Amino acid sequence: MRVLSGIQPTGNLHLGNYLGAIRNWVRMQDEMDSQSQCFFFLADMHSITVHEGREQRIRNVRDMAAALVAAGIDPDRSVLFNQARVPAHAELCWLLNGTARIGWLNRMTQFKDKVGKDREGASIGLFVYPVLQAADILVYNATHVPVGEDQKQHLELARDIATKFNTDFGVELFTLPDPIIPKESARIMSLRDGTAKMSKSDPSDMSRINLTDDDDAIMQKVKKAKTDPEPLPDNAEGLAGRPEANNLLGIYATLSGMSVDAVCAEFAGKGFGAFKPALGELLVETLRPIRSRFMELRTDDAALDAILEKGAAKASAAAEPTLRAAYDAMGLMR
Ligand code: TYM
Question: Is the ipTM of this complex over 0.90?
Answer without folding.
Answer: yes
